[in-house]
Amino acid sequence: MKAFEPSKGDIIIKRATNGFVVLSSSRVEGEYDISVYEFREEFAEDIDEAEAMFSLLYEHFPHIFQTKHKGGLSASIHEKGWASAGTEGKDEGDV
Which is it for strands 32-38 and 11-16: parallel, antiparallel or unpaired? Predict the structure, then answer.
């Protein structure tokens, strides 16, 4: 079996036990940068994973986020769920 070789411009995200690993093209042909976004392995809270994913997306895909003059992805992290925040109008099946 042949090893996977990313093409120029590729960004590959892998879910690891305690975070995310990102392999992205380097400025040098044939070389790649590796970034790691960790959260606590044994006691990982959903919020830790959300913060790691948010950092990953913002650092590798800044162009997709909303700015003052451009529409785009808008994301925020909330430490509590809808039920504990008292937000009305959400179905029980919503995630």
Answer: unpaired
Question: pLDDT-based confidence at 71, cuts 50/70/90?
Answer: very high
Residue owning tokens 């790649």: 32
Q: Where are the alpha helices (DSSP H) in the chain?
A: 46-60, 82-85
End-to-end CA distance of the chain: 39
pLDDT of residue 29: 73
- Look at the block and give the residue holding tokens 């690993």: 21
Place of tokens 């044939």: 30
Per-residue confidence band for 44, with pLDDT thresholds at 50, 70 and 90: low
Beta strands in the chain (DSSP E): 11-16, 19-25, 32-38
Cα angle 16, 22, 77 (rounded to 5 degrees) comes to 75
Across the strands, what pairs with 25?
32
Tokens at 69, concatenated = 């003059």
How many Å separate Cα 19 from the centre of its chain? 10
